Predict the 3D structure of the following.
Amino acid sequence: MFRRPWLVLQLFARSSRVQRKRAVLTVAAIAWGSLSLVLLLAFGEGLKRQITLAKSGLGIHIAVLWPGETTRPWQGLPAGRPVRPRVEDVTLLHDRVPQLAGVSGEMRRWSAAFTNGERTVNSRLTGANLSYGDLRNQIARAGGRWLDPLDEKLRRRVIFLGWELARDLFGDEDPVGRTLLVSNVPFTVVGVLERKLQMGTYGGPDAGQAVIPLATFQAQFGGDRLSNLVVRPDVPEHMPAVLRSVREVLGAKYGFDPSDERALGAWDTVENSIVMENILLGIQAFLGIIGALTLVVGGIGVANIMYAVVKERTREIGVKMALGARRGWITGPIVLEGLVYTLLGGLLGLVMATVLVALLGLVPTEGNEAIEMLGKPTISPAIALLNAAVLGLIGLAAGYFPARRAASVDPAETLRYE
Amino acid sequence: MSDTKHGTVIRMEAIGKVYDTGKVKVEALAGIDLSVARGELVALIGPSGSGKSTLMNLIGCLDTPSAGRYELQGERVAGLSREQLAGIRNRRVGFVFQNFNLLPQISAFENVEMPLLFGGVRRAERRQRVEELLTRVGLADRIEHKPTELSGGQMQRVAIARALAMEPDLLLADEPTGNLDTSSGTDIMSLFEELWHQGRTIVVITHDPALARRAARRIELRDGRISSDSAAA
């Protein structure tokens, strides 16, 4: 379409300038649109990152199983029998399910009395295997540690506290190394859970519970029935196979149909996170469309100003045609001008969005859970690229249609003296 | 090609032009037969609405005829694409308008340079040609002035320099003195005469009897037809 593109640039440089106020308003409209698009996408991205982070708070690629009740007769046994795995099943599963990368049992007291001097708090107490630390992201704050094999082997009375429980009992003091009473039995604090975002709990957030070795729990409170099993496959794709194997192994032991899912309930976070990812993608697409529409409004502004430009320059266009300008030399500078306004506005919007996002990043979010979950808006290269692509398209369209009108100017008509 | 050698610049046979506005059809020109030789100075006269401007647009390839046959320097114009017509306007025709039609935001230099840009003339040559042309019309000291900084007569000189830029064989002027005071008008007329003496073919539309008298050939249009042609008489 354009012969000698350099000439288009020269002509663009020499075409009359649009009224400044109008140009400023148009660029501002595009900047606003670009700002909305980038900010909306940045919030979407921040939310996505935060949710991904929060999801990992519970544990990555894990499934949680809990005791259930059979719903079908199986091998001569009636329906309606409870299924309650035992402590020894952790080893059994570890040996019998090859695709299992990690497994931990949990025994739980829903309400135990924790006492530090005058202060007593009722909260949840969990006895767990060592692998629970890795499976459930029990990361110790600096200065403390997670449970170790000797704790388990010697049934030590050591305890790992959630950070809220630690604060309720010890205030601002460092609890590590201190002794507290759990149901009047002394325990030594070995670590405090590092603050983390946790989306998804069973029983309650980790911040408010305490964990002790499973062997110690059994020694203190007796019993061998598990409240929960936590499993992780070697690769996330093996989760369905692992759950099937777990049900087959335990089904053979406790006498239930492996396909009877109610006999042993399971919460598969891998499956959940796929659903969540799709929802997040949907949210981002939705935000992106809203932003793009705002930008389209700005684009209409550019098209409008370019139509006005063509109208104002009708005579100029006619003169150039009389002097022998080809079609592309008439339309090229107009398309270019539309594109320049759009890209200028877009760049301005992107810069403003970047500054705003940087300022928002300075606002403290710790402590306010709602804002904490919203996360920090983040501008990724993909967002900047998408913004540029949408701007380019809108700019081209905003210049193309007015340029087409310019090309249809009849020189004989416009040069007639009025 | 023989036409060019023997010097026929314009050859029109049975040219008609009908404007179709949808509701009514207006016949602006009917059965124009016209032949203009190289080096002629032709004055096109006639009352308003007689079709002078329409004929001028057809000669200059700004518009195409509805009927008839038109050869410009031996080349048939009918059936050429818009781009080809643009090329013809650029190389073979120079336009001068009553209201000058200079581009107001650029300098005299850049105005004269415009056809050279379209014609693909190199930068160094462009500069040289533009300076020569502006010197020739007596505006060597106004090269960087914008049209708004020039008088009417000066603006028309710039327009004439622009029309001459690509060294076309044919110069078309539509009421070139219509917007000028008498003395500027006389200057412009003298400039046209000078160009004519240098061998240009010039067609001038004019209401000005003085200018018309200076032309060797006067063609009068009436109701879209040639009513008198001094060459034929």
